[in-house]
Amino acid sequence: MLAKSPKFLAHLANCLAVLVMMHLIAESMAADPQSELVEDASKPVFSSPVLDLGLVVGDLEVSATFYRDALGCREVQGFTANGSFAASIGLVDHMDVTARVFLLGEGPSQSRIKMMSFPQAHASKSDQRFIHSTLGFSYLTLHVLDLDASMKRLKASKVSFEGKTPVSLGGGNALLVIRDPDGNFIELIGPSKTVIPPTAEP
User: Fold this and answer.
1) Are 189 and 147 in contact (CB under 8 A)?
2) Is the domain defined by 51-120 classed in CATH 2.60.40.420?
3) Residue 187, strand partner residues
4) Which are the contacts of 171, defined by CB distance < 8 A and separation ≥ 6?
5) Residue 197: what pLDDT?
6) What pLDDT band is residue 71 in, cutting at 50, 70 and 90?
7) What gap in Å lies between CA 182 and CA 126, rounded to an integer?
8) Distance CA 141, CA 155 (A)
9) Do residues 45 and 85 make contact, with C-beta atoms less than 8 angstroms apart?
10) 3-state SS string over 3-33?
11) What's the distance, Cα to Cα, between the start and end of the chain in Å?
């Protein structure tokens, strides 16, 4: 048997050490398959914290007027998509899309409400008696700068207030619940000088 040089033996020892280390890592990952996921969970997932909401309405003009004039959203340039493309991404059954877009404020980082209507689809409304009547997204919360100004604008548009709202949340803030033209719940929260906190019972 040929004698091995010291350099060869050192190289062999290094290779064996690497193999042993790889085996130990594999065993560790097999015992804890979430180890890779935990590392990934610490990294950012979303490129933006802004939410876009797609809203299908019964009457596009009526709902656009409500969200713009009664709520105070700002309408910007909308967009269109042909039925073939919309069908290719699984959102629409071969119907053209015309969307009107509304923002909650100024600046590039704004949540958007993308409003569209498909009269030819004859879509049925979900049960909106209460937020627990139907599974899924149930209401929209909007934080306003002046709830009193919002209520004045809503009253001018003859929008009814739900339940016993507005109600005080304390700290000078109040909450108001309304519905849009399709019956979807919208919650408005903001400072109010006219909504009086309930007096504490003795």
Assistant:
1) yes
2) no
3) 141, 177
4) none
5) 86
6) very high
7) 10
8) 19
9) no
10) CCCHHHHHHHHHHHHHHHHHHHHHHHHHHCC
11) 100
Cα separation, 78 vs 98, whole angstroms = 8
Instruction: Tell if the pTM clears 0.70, that is, is over it.
Output: yes
Q: Residue 7 CA to chain centroid, in angstroms?
A: 62
The fold adopted by the segment(s) 133-197 is 2,3-Dihydroxybiphenyl 1,2-Dioxygenase; domain 1 (3.10.180)
**What is the residue extent of each domain of the chain?**
51-120, 133-197
Strand order in the sheet with 112-117: 52-57, 112-117, 97-103, 74-81
Residue with tokens 């797609």, as numbered in its chain:
54
- Phi–psi pair at 78, nearest 5 degrees: -90, -160
